[in-house]
Amino acid sequence: MLRASESVHPLDQALVLVPGGQPGQWQGSTHPFYRNMVGPYGGVTAAQMLQAVMLDERRIGDPMSLTLHYAAPVADGAFEIHSSIKRSNRSTQHWAIDMVQFQGEASVVVMTGMLITARRRETWSLQELLMPKVPQPETLERFYRPQAPDWVNSFDMRYVNGDMQIRGKAQDQASLDSAIQRFGLPEVQDSKSLLWFRDEPLRQLDFPGLASLCDIFFPRIFVRRPIWVPAGTISMSIYFHGSQQDIDAIGQDYLLGLADTNRFNRGFFDQQAYLWSRQGALIASTQQMVYYKL
Fold first, then answer.
1. Which of 265, 185, 277 is nearest to 223 (CA)?
2. For residues 22-35, b (16+ Cβ closer than 10 Å) or e, as one string?
């Protein structure tokens, strides 16, 4: 793994995209630093999708809204990203983005999405959602799990409350019942998590990096019912509330995130999260739909 003293950050390595033969066509690859249980960490694939537009000379403005659908697991190795402008005016631009991988000679869409970029103007502004009052990150212990998938320890996470305490593993109802009986379940009253986080090694925040951090929150089912079951993101939307200047001002500092859910039901649940700078500015909010098998 890359050490902090080395020159190229793993995320920047993952964000290297080579132009293809036509406008909006890019070639890239997954990165082992962000390996998950199945394929790469979804936040990095979100960052790669966004990067394809950030690199495009046709883009106007900054990212405002990104919605992604995880159509299939992303396999380790090469991929292509195809982006196209669906509509553009003086202040906003609408993009369609697909990630494609090849199985033999057949191409398979593994991820698809829409991005809106916008020119932000000086207007009256107000933030209603205030940052919770919490201890400073330097006073909290880092969440580190050497047995976890690689991506987990690729971030410096410091929980105020609601960390993940997986006690067992279940693949079906019988193994779930066995795990519950063997390990027991702690009394967890909700799925809320509140934590500070940043890249590790440190990295200057930018929009692709922020997109990656928006997926840092573990599936809420692992918090509310801490037995591992198959689960994964189906769709994710990110709303960028900060301008380029706001993002630049954060630098390499921590963000504070608050995540929770509304309902687990028939194999699916939603989860949402809010991200603030240390100074209390709401930088992004995000929503997901997630599947689970038990």
1. 185
2. eebbbebebbebbb
Q: Which of 118-122, 269-273, 284-288 has the lowest mean pLDDT?
A: 118-122
Q: What CA–CA distance (Å, rounded) separates 281 from 275?
A: 8
Helices (H), the chain: 10-14, 42-54, 173-183, 207-213, 220-224, 244-250
Structure confidence by residue, pLDDT tens digits, 206-262? 999 999 999 999 999 999 988 888 899 999 999 999 999 999 999 999 999 999 999
Distance of CA 30 to the CA centre of its chain: 15
- Global pTM reads 0.92
Q: Output the CA–CA distances (angstroms, integers) from residue 44 to 58, 64, 104, 199, 264, in the order listed.
A: 23, 18, 25, 12, 26
d(CA 143, CA 99): 32
Contact 262, 235 (CB under 8 A): no
Written as six digits, the tokens of 171 are 């693949």
DSSP letters, 42-103, are HHHHHHHHHHHHHT-TT--SEEEEEEEEE-SPPPSSEEEEEEEEEEE-SSEEEEEEEEEEEE
